[in-house]
Amino acid sequence: MLGLPRSTEVNRRVSKEKIYANTTMTTQLRDIIKNQIESIIWRNKLSDTTVGLAPGEDVKEIQVFEISLRQRGLDKRVLTAINKAIPYKILFVLTFENVAQTWIEASGTFYNSDWFRIDGCTLKLDGLNLDTVYGNLARHIAGGRLDSEGDISEAVEKDKLRQKLEREIAGLEKKILREKQFNRQVELNSELRRLRTELEGLTR
How far apart are CA 153 and CA 133, in angstroms? Predict the structure, then answer.
């Protein structure tokens, strides 16, 4: 799967009961797992013994979990719960019929790819240790939202700020359209220019 080396293959089923036993979750979340997930398969293990990459300071192993879905889409809270139940970094591959989508967590934030044909995507393990490999996987899956250089946590914080500014700009643009007082429009436009300048500084 995803063009990963055969030396990394595990192909072991993970029972839903094991997930329930290793994390605290609501009855609602258990029902979501029962209703939305067909099966969970531990597909690959990326470690110093399987791919010859040194462990990082934060990332000792990367597990690849395939989650076979009963519908196209999964409640993100399920991924958070599984993340808490497994003491390693996880690359999630959601599959439904002949398409798949990858999800990965970086600094507390999940990023996902677009849907793609299962046989149409390979992942490149780029980096000298598992910290850099994991960071580069996150950047690849995020599709350009994360800076290509520097610390991954800083890139995530920058992305959060970028999204916050984009939301504030969109809200301000709507407010300006509704505002009837000229003086107030001038004030709002001044604030809009400031936010746009700040956003431009982030995207350079």
Answer: 14
